[in-house]
Amino acid sequence: MNQSKKFSWGGFHHIAIVTPDLDTTIHFYQDILGMEIGKIYPAKGGRGRHGFIKPGICDGLGLHFFENPNVEIISFPKGSLRPESLQTNSFVDGVLQHIAFSLPNEESALILRERLLKNEVEMTDIYEIESLKDMIFIDKTNGILLEAIWPSK
Fold it and tell me: What is the pLDDT of residues 70-99, one digit of tens each?
């Protein structure tokens, strides 16, 4: 294969994830996180219902959830977001470690944090990493770690 030719990537189009309950997943991402839900496609040909969830402005379609009620989700254990747990054991083998979403500013982050608290979503404190701030929280339906990250100024 000739590797001297150059090309460029256009970014992520979507990330495919299996969920045991598409309706509950849609509720979490739409009603709690405020993300846009695209068309939901019916089950067909051995594939369960599926649809896209778009986390704001992006070139692609975002998250593509496929419903399979029999799926066995390996998720982060409850309490894994406590500071002492994050310092010693922040990874779970065989699991997508996290998905990070950007927010435009701290005001948006604080509104999101209020929604997460109201809905009893487990989350970390807000941390600062150089010129960014972030917090990590758990997708209550699928056990996926999600991160919200924004500029610190």
Answer: 988 777 666 666 655 554 556 666 667 789
Residue 106 CA to residue 128 CA, distance in Å, equals 12
Quote the tokens at residue 53. Answer: 């969830």
Q: For the chain, what is the total number of helices (H) and then of strands (E)?
A: 3, 8
**Residue 26: which H helix or E strand, with range?**
helix 22-26
pTM of the model: 0.84
Determine the Cα–Cα distance for residues 53 and 65; give it in Å rounded to an integer: 8
Name the DSSP class of 23.
H
Residue the block writes with tokens 């470690």: 97
Coil, helix or strand at residue 32: helix
Tell me, letter by letter, the H, E, C secondary structure of 80-146. CCCHHHHHHCCCCCCCCCCEEEECCCHHHHHHHHHHHHHCCCCECCCEEECCEEEEEEECCCCCCEE
